[in-house]
Amino acid sequence: MNRPQGVVVWMVLVMAVGAGWWWGGRPSAPVPTVSNLGDSGTLPSTLTVHVGGWVARPGLVELPADSRVADAIAAAGGALPGALTEAINLAERLTDGAQVIVPGPATEGAESNGDPAGDGRIHLNRATASELDDLPGIGPVIAERIVAHRTEHGPFRAVEDLLDVPGIGEAKLASLRDLVVP
Q: Distance between CA atoms of 73 and 77, rounded to whole angstroms?
């Protein structure tokens, strides 16, 4: 190889090493993964979470993408008095579509739905629709309305809250008052 060709090869080699050094030293952007991409292939800026249980306003909340369980509870109006927030990880990061259920005294360790105190009364916040259907004057339709009301509005705080359920009036409440507890 003659001298001019050697110089050219040497210069190309130096430029290639320099370009590689420059390119490799640049900070790289994080690479999105399939698990954190939205439908459009971009990182979501918000997420939607279902919050239920012992919160002031159960339902869907929209939060910034980096939110935690505590943020979801706050967005749902905060935990109700008696909520057992120590039973859940308030610092856990949320994902889109997650569900956060805040337990309360009525849901703590609920193994059987019906009889909380051993006195034969039905627990409104734990009973299934079929258990509620066994109550006098409550058929399957009203039982489903009670469960739907509890799911949509949160736990019953008093037996009188049954008046908010369509189909339950004062007379029906009077017949249930000694058979149920919130």
A: 7
The CATH homologous superfamily of the domain defined by 122-181: Photosystem II 12 kDa extrinsic protein (1.10.150.320)
Q: How far apart are CA 80 and CA 56, in angstroms?
A: 6
Q: Domain boundaries in the chain?
A: 43-102, 122-181
The two three-digit tokens of residue 71, written as one number: 């943020």
**Residue listed under structure tokens 């008052």:** 177
Q: Which residues contact 12 (CB under 8 A, 6 or more apart)?
A: none
Q: CA 158 to CA 106: how far, in whole Å?
A: 12
Q: Can you tell me which residue has the tokens 């309360």?
A: 104
Summarised one tens digit per residue, pLDDT across range 66-83 is: 999 999 999 999 988 778
Global model pTM greater than 0.85:
no
Query: What's the rounded Cα separation, in Å, for the pair 165 and 124?
Result: 12
